[in-house]
Amino acid sequence: xxxxxxxxxxxxxxxxxxxxxxxxxxxxxxHVPACPVVVFINSRSGGQLGGDxxxxxRSVLNPSQVYDLxxxxxxxxxxxxxxxxxxxxxxxxxxxxKVQERLRIIVAGGDGTAGWLLGVVCDLKLSCPPPIATVxxxxxxxxxxxxxxxxxxxxxxxxxxxxxLSQVKGAKEMKVDSWHILLRMRTxxxxxxxxxxxxxxxxxxxxxxxxSSSDDLNREGCSTFRGGFWNYFSMGMDAQVxxxxxxxxxxxxxxxxxxxxxxxxxxxxxxxxxxxxxxxxHPSSRNIAQLAKVMIMKKNGExxxxxxxxxxxSIICLNLPSFSGGLNxxxxxxxxxxxxxxxxxxxxxxxxxxxxxxxDAWHGLVLxxxxxxxxRLAQARRVKFEFHKGAASETYMxxxxxxxxxxxPSDDDTVVVEISHLHQVKMLATPxxxxxxxxxxSTPKKxxxxxEDDNDSDDADDAVDEEGRKFGAADTFKIPDEVDISHLx
Length: 489
What we know:
With 489 residues, the protein is α+β, with helices and mostly antiparallel strands. The chain is built from 13 helices and 17 strands. It is 25% helix and 22% strand. It has a 7-stranded antiparallel β-sheet with strand order 6-7-5-17-14-9-10. A hairpin with a 2-residue loop joins strand 15 (394-399) and strand 16 (402-407). It is globular and about 70 Å long.
């Protein structure tokens, strides 16, 4: 057991100023740190917890290696840091080389904050991208939970921080898929077709924006938007409840400072909106099958229609085995059942996304049972929703916990949402975490016909230029200045 209170322990994480700040005076170190860390904290997450955590980390580590995301954006910090390390390496600085090789990132905030960091690391295309550990400061905390960091807001005292650092030092690296989302709709002759008003952008979709006229994905007469996600995309009843919750939180932020109270409010909204008896309270147009045609692509590069049961009112495209605060809608497919024989466990790095359906809130409660799961619909490399003409005036969508109300023009059927594999990034995971790798010898292997090279595809539709493969095509993956990141969750 390590003595986490010793100076020797803290030296394993220390980075001297001259490596962090160009031109700073050099600091001779006899010991090369085993686990140098750069820490990013959303000081407005978790009520006062983010601010308290910032103070504690700066008291434990070199304050220059701990950044407040409300003051400095991660793209600028990491770009400056890695440029400085490259210059020092060119001057034969051995410490710079070792720190770059061993560097790990800690991000404290909600899933939106964590997704921001993941996207920045993805976009910067660093020669040696550091793996990322996540501190749960949000309401759902699906990303931290999926990789073993818990889902409850952590302690902010010195002992809690030291214990977390010890876990980071002993954590394993694991790759995780990221997913590109494209939304295209015909520009109406009258009125606006923006999917979301600028200040109502889902914060985890801060890269979700209109593509430029020079982008290959742009089509004349259409408005095209793009973004990305790590955990899930959902549409239907769950997104509608989430939208009501976030709308209420924007109006009365003072009532949403406590994680437990937030979860109670969420449960009340499920009941008040009638989703426990959806068939009685909501029109059939809310059924996914009547709202849109769902197309999937598996392995052969050909689209095929997914048969969605008529009663499904919520559909989830899931990347991680954690949804809605740690629940796993996919479960574990039973190979003895005929309909499950083509399905695999939910690996986070296999280039496949799990598609699950729910019919009402009672159906959702099966997730609370030890082996409960939703209706498994398919696993696919790409998913496309083609909305039916005049089926509804709007629907609700959600990405990584952040919802929005999506208008659906009634005079055409060209509204399309398409999801495709984008990149991978390295996460840090604790032993025994929920997430499983297809390449981990300790996890069950996929069948031979599933063991293809996940990056291999000869389908022309998969061709996206290098610039377009940035996460959301954002130059710096920066959250817009006008957006207050205090609501990131």
